[in-house]
Structure formats: structure tokens, C-alpha cells
Write a structure and sequence with these properties.
Length: about 475
């Protein structure tokens, strides 16, 4: 295409269209062995043992860990949390966020590389893929045009996806088992008797696991995970990260083992690209710190293997700090800079909140009482002798032991607490982790008190029946008593 310039000369130019979205290039990570690879295996086994195993543990005749949304109770071993205990959930979320900030400030994206569900399930799916299709080059050939679709290729692909779907289904089933008793859920699945919502969430989480770990993989880390975007503001020159030693490695270049690379002006990097081949996100760590790096250490293991083969010292790629690379310090020297202001502040906040959390849980009174005056029922005279006010009392037992509860009203002379049938309220029996909502009448003799509004107290005493002894729990609740004119 051309047009005339102000000087009258023809000027030609070319229109270039460039897409703002990069088409995904499938990554075929190469298998690797080493210290960090072993740690990834250990963390995968540990996290999945916890995740798949916890719903099957029993505690006092019930599921040990259960978030019962229908009954609005959370069971965590011997701890029973009610909606009123949302403060503990808030504290846990704050502690988790501060711990993530602390780990990132000290050692980068450790959570991403070793414990993030996306990383863990991607590792599981890649292990299945390698067992079924082979290592990197075998998978590349299998997906290439030189290997046309055949019975064998169909069999390999179907086997892989069948195993992926089996893991995905079991993962979705286990996740729902944290919110629905897993024994009930197992029976419903075995008899094909799942409810509509259970069916929906089982399909949703199974499909999400299959899609994220089987297909999207690094795309989740690159484009969907917010942590990758703001990690740069939490690291500094003293944060331990997976780092390429450019001072030692550059200029890089291929050479034979017998060549004196120092005499030829070459660095230690032989430009073998194995560090790129093993990277699950497909980046080149030699280009410097990138937000796509999840800190898994696969490039460290692979580079150390290459260094051993050619007789160079290990550590061309290693966990170290930017300051250590620039000043040519050892890791032992870099560790001295860990205790810096941001790390100390995070540690102080975590210690303070953890202490408050533990003390609050240890001193928590499992007896909960909520008394509400019935605003729809006016104070009334009964038999010309007594005045009644109507209340609703909710008594909750947040412990793992049954209770016997006694309620007494004080504040006016001659007060009695009656049931809705007019009988005097006796002892209330509460089973473990249960509650009762009772309508009660509080009456007093006419003429003993002047008309008006009076503050009264409900003294609630509960005996918690443990295996060894009875523990007394006491609560005092305020309310108002009305004597009409």
C-alpha cells in the first residue's frame, strides 16, 4: 500500500496485524529427578493423603472434619463451630494470608511450587500422562502429524483420559464429602440416588479438575491466578528465589567437555535448554525473574545433572537471592539477611494472632444462650393474679459432651419461668453439639411492682457431663420485663 508524502513522493508502507492474545503453545515438560523433584513428590503425597483421608476419619461417632451447611455447624475433630463463631474463620483467613506473605518474602512462591492444588493435580496428571504416553519426546511424536490416528493412538489417548477422569471424579467426590457426610454420599453414589445439587457439584468439581490439571495447566498460573500478579511487591533483593547466576553462566554457548571454556571466554552455561524443557510453565529462567515462575525447582535439578556430567560445579541455577548473585555471596551469607523489617513484622502479627486464636479457643464457653422477648405478644394478666411476658430462649451446646441446663430469672420479686403449657420450666437436656429453641413465660404477682419497664437477668447454669466429672458452665443474659398499667 502507498500514498504520497507532503513532498509529492510516493511512500509505501505495510500494514501488520498482531493479535493481543497469544495462542497457547502446548508444553511437554520433561521428567526430572533430584532434591526438589523428591520434595514435590513428598508434598503431593502428603497433601493428598490429608485431602482424601480426612473425610473418612471418625470422631466420637461422627465424621471428624465436616462442614455441615444444612445444620450450620462445622466439625473439626473435637471442635464444633456455629455461625456465631465466624470470628474464628476470619482469624484463620487472616493468618493464612499473613503466612503466605511471610513465605513469599522469605522464599518466593513456595506454596505455588509445592502445595497449590493447581500444581499438585497438574503433577498427578503429568505423572499419569508420562506413564501412559511416555516422556517428553514420545508425547511430542504422539501428538505430531507424523503419527496418524490409529487404533493404538486411540487406545493410548482413551486410557489417559479415563485415568484423568477417574482421579477427577474421586477428587470431586471427596470435596463434596467435606460438606455432606461421606458415608451418606457414598451410599447415594452407589445407589445412583444423588440429589440435584450434589449431582451438579460433583460434575462441576470433576470437570474443573479435569480441565484445569489436564488442559489449562500453566494457563491458570499465568492468567487466572492473582497471586502471580502481586508477588513482585512482596519480594526484594533478599528473597530466596530460583535464580540463574548470569555472572557465572554468561556468555553461554555449546562446547565439548574437553574444551577450556574459560580460555574461550565462555561462561558455565552450555545452552542445552534442558532447564526450559523441564519447566512446567515453559519459561526460560535465564531471562531473569518472571511472574510465570512457580518456584518448583525443576530447572535446578536438571541443571545440576548437566553440571555433573560436564564436570562443572553445581549451582548455576539455584535457590538464592538477588543480592547474593550481585555480591557473589554464598547462601550461608545470604541467610543472614532473612531477618529484615518486613519479615519481622509478618512474624510478629502471625505470632500475636495465633496466640489470640489459641487462647480464645481454649477459654471459649461452649454454652451459648440467646434470649429474645416476643415482640408480637403483649404483657398480659393471667387469672387476675399474675402478669406474664413471653420470651424465646435458644440454648446451644457447642461441646462434645451432653449438658443439663437450668434457667433462672432474677430482677423482680416472685418471678417464675413457665413452659408454653403453663408448667414450671424444669431441667433442659441438651445432647452434644445441639441446640433447643423454647418458648417460655415469665410471670410475677400483680401489685408487687409498679407499672413500667424493668431490666431482668436470666441466669443459665449448665452441667457438662464428661466421662470423669461434671463441669459447670454459666451464662448471664439481660432482657426487659414489662408490667402494664
Amino acid at each position: 500500500m502507498s500514498e504520497k508524502s507532503p513532498a509529492g513522493k510516493a511512500v509505501s508502507f505495510e500494514i501488520i496485524e498482531e493479535s493481543l492474545y497469544e495462542i497457547r503453545r502446548k508444553i511437554y515438560p520433561r521428567s526430572v529427578s533430584g532434591v526438589f523433584a523428591r520434595w514435590r513428590v513428598i508434598l503431593v503425597l502428603f497433601t493428598q493423603l490429608l485431602f482424601y483421608g480426612l473425610p473418612w476419619l471418625s470422631w466420637n461417632g461422627r465424621q471428624a472434619v465436616l462442614f455441615d451447611l444444612i445444620q450450620r455447624k462445622f466439625y473439626i475433630f473435637g471442635l464444633v463451630l456455629w455461625p456465631q463463631d465466624v470470628i474464628y474463620l476470619t482469624l484463620l483467613l487472616i493468618l493464612s494470608a499473613l503466612a503466605l506473605f511471610l513465605f513469599t518474602a522469605v522464599a518466593g512462591r513456595l506454596f505455588c511450587g509445592y502445595a497449590c492444588p493447581q500444581t499438585v493435580y497438574t503433577e498427578i496428571f503429568m505423572w499419569i500422562e508420562r506413564r501412559v504416553e511416555g516422556d517428553r519426546f514420545a508425547r511430542i511424536r504422539l501428538d505430531g502429524e507424523e503419527w496418524p490416528w490409529s487404533v493404538r493412538k486411540w487406545r493410548i489417548k482413551i486410557t489417559k483420559h479415563f485415568l484423568w477422569l477417574a482421579v477427577s471424579f474421586w477428587t470431586g467426590f471427596t470435596f463434596i464429602g467435606y460438606f455432606t457426610p461421606i458415608d451418606t454420599l457414598s451410599s447415594a453414589v452407589a445407589h445412583l440416588d444423588l440429589g440435584p445439587w450434589q449431582t451438579f457439584w460433583l460434575g462441576f468439581y470433576s470437570f474443573a479438575t479435569w480441565g484445569n490439571a489436564g488442559f489449562m495447566r500453566e494457563q491458570v498460573c499465568k492468567y487466572m491466578c492473582p497471586y502471580a500478579r502481586f508477588q513482585s511487591v512482596m519480594v526484594d533483593k533478599d528473597t530466596f528465589l530460583v535464580t540463574y547466576d548470569g555472572v557465572r553462566g554468561e556468555p553461554k554457548g555449546a562446547r565439548s567437555k574437553s574444551v577450556d571454556h574459560i580460555a574461550k571466554g565462555l561462561g558455565d552455561c552450555v545452552d542445552c535448554s534442558i532447564c526450559i524443557q523441564v519447566c512446567p510453565t515453559g519459561i526460560d529462567i535465564r531471562d531473569g525473574l518472571q511472574y510465570m515462575c512457580i518456584g518448583c525447582g525443576a530447572c535446578i535439578d536438571s541443571c545440576d545433572v548437566v553440571m555433573d556430567k560436564i564436570g562443572y560445579p553445581r549451582g548455576l541455577i539455584r535457590y538464592t537471592t538477588e543480592r547474593a548473585i550481585q555480591d557473589k555471596e554464598s547462601n550461608q551469607s545470604a541467610i543472614k539477611h532473612i531477618l529484615r523489617p518486613r519479615v519481622l513484622i509478618y512474624t510478629a502479627f502471625i505470632s500475636l494472632l495465633t496466640t489470640a486464636f489459641i487462647v480464645s479457643l481454649a477459654t471459649r464457653n461452649p454454652l451459648r444462650v440467646d434470649i429474645m422477648r416476643d415482640r408480637g405478644a403483649l404483657a398480659r394478666e393471667v387469672d387476675g393474679a399474675r402478669i406474664e411476658n413471653i420470651y424465646r430462649i435458644q440454648v446451644m451446646n457447642a461441646s462434645e459432651n451432653p449438658m443439663k441446663v437450668h434457667v433462672k430469672a432474677t430482677g423482680l420479686d416472685g418471678m417464675k419461668i413457665l413452659t408454653s403449657q403453663g408448667q414450671e420450666l424444669g431441667e433442659i437436656a441438651l445432647d452434644r453439639a445441639s441446640n433447643q429453641l423454647l418458648p417460655i413465660k415469665v410471670s410475677t404477682v400483680i401489685g408487687q411492682n409498679e407499672p413500667g419497664n424493668y431490666p431482668i437477668h436470666f441466669e443459665v447454669e449448665a452441667k457438662e457431663l464428661t466421662h470423669s466429672e461434671e463441669i459447670l458452665r454459666v451464662r448471664d443474659e439481660k432482657s426487659t420485663y414489662i408490667i402494664p398499667r
